[in-house]
Amino acid sequence: MQTYDLFAPTTDAERLDLYARMRGEPGLCRIAPFGAYAAARYEDVRAIQKDAQRFSSEALAVSAAPPWLGPNPVAQSLVTRDPPRHTQLRALVNRAFGPSGMARLEAQVRREAETLAEAAVRQREVDFVDALSFVLPRNIIGRMLGLEPSTFTEFKRWSVNMGLISSAVPEQHQGIRDTVKEMEAYLGDVIAARRRQPGDDMVSDLVRAEVEGQQLTDAEVLSFLFLLLPAGMETTAQLIGNAAILLARFPEHLEHARADKAHIVRFLEEVLRYEPPAQFAFRVAVTDVELSGTKVPAGSLVMGLVASANRDERVFEQPDRFLPGRDKGTQHLSFGHGIHFCLGAQLARMEARLALEALVPRIRAVELRSPDIQWLPGLTIHGPRTLPVDLIPV
After folding, report:
1. Residue 96 binned pLDDT confidence (cut-offs 50, 70, 90)
2. Helix, strand, coil proportions of the chain in percent (round to 5)?
3. Which positions ≥6 away from 80 have C-beta within 8 Å?
């Protein structure tokens, strides 16, 4: 069985070439540095995401709490649980992220997007991340959780560091440990305050919530917040940031979106397929299993390479071309599949759509101020860390 080093590629082209070679293998591969089995083809990644009986999400607990870090509340969160506990916990927040919750939130998101887009275009030369793509989801999730706006400036550093955990190098370890301690202290104080005086926010809802007649413990609420705060920002921030890059690279789609607002939805689905914000899905084999002819021993770490699956030529015609509205365009695996389908998928899609609906009528071009994108560090989360652009007004 071939072993591949995920850290070896230094460019996008090299990374995509590596994935193509992995898809060409007869079965699964092994990957360094994780020592895991890896699925690169669409059908295998989908099977790993969908089949919770054979592939447990407890792998996320392992990757979220490596020995150098120690305890991390994310390791006890919703995404690391299997049924029936996963079902019970997910039910607590489904209402906020479901269709009715999104309908109540849409007007607020639209106002925020319009304000940010207007300010960004007026300034013209901006870091798109700080001007719009990160700030919009940061402000929305912060308000949903009822957090103090004066603390919002810390969220970017926290989010970046939490996203590094599964692929951090030693020189990043101390910064991540400090972030976990800061978040524990801050969010612990928020929980204590809501215990004393609940409000109209998601933290108060979690404090009041019951599972099988029992309220959640402070540790359980903390694990929810460690998940919801970064997750509520990162997927959307990278989706909007990657969308801006692709509007710059394929300007004809800006024209299409200006002529037909419906094109924005098609465009964003292709952004999700082409540059997925979350690159991997981690699982653990529950029993000895066989996938595409490869025997995987029980207890083995298995990774689904989402970015590779989304470029699988067996499913998507001309997968390396950016083609909004393509056949099977919504069948990408960027939000997962099965019981762990991304809880915030509707929120991410809505925020990204409203961000572009606010931006597109105000500009006639997005110009990258450098052809070299400064991507976020690490392998798991994919998007620009900074994105200097010139927004050319209409």
Report:
1. low
2. 55, 15, 30
3. 57, 58, 60, 61, 64, 74
Closest CA to 238 of 195, 272, 209, 193: 272
For the chain, which residues make up each domain, given as ranges? 3-393
Query: pLDDT tens digits, residue range 312-326?
Result: 999 999 999 999 999
Determine the Cα–Cα distance for residues 178 and 184; give it in Å rounded to an integer. Answer: 10
Angle, alpha carbons 109-110-112 (nearest 5°)? 65
CA–CA separation, 166 and 230 (whole Å): 14
Joined together, the tokens standing for residue 153 give 């400036």
* Cα–Cα distance, 6 to 167 (Å, whole number): 10
Q: What is the pTM assigned to this prediction?
A: 0.90
- Do 367 and 126 form a contact (C-beta atoms < 8 A)? no
Specify the CATH number of the domain 3-393.
1.10.630.10
Tokens 């991304």 belong to residue: 342
Q: What is the rounded CA–CA span in Å between residue 101 and residue 158?
A: 26
pLDDT digits (tens, 9 = 90+) for 199-245: 988 899 888 887 777 788 898 889 889 888 888 898 899 999 999 99
CA 360/CA 278 separation, integer angstroms? 25
**Closest C-alpha among 230, 197, 184, 244 to residue 366:** 244
Beta-carbon contacts of 255 under 8 Å, excluding residues fewer than 6 positions away, are none
**Start-to-end CA span in the chain (Å):** 55
Q: Write phi, then psi, for 172 (nearest 5 degrees).
A: -95, -10
Let me know: does 267 contact 274? Beta carbons within 8 Å.
no
131: three-class secondary structure by DSSP:
helix
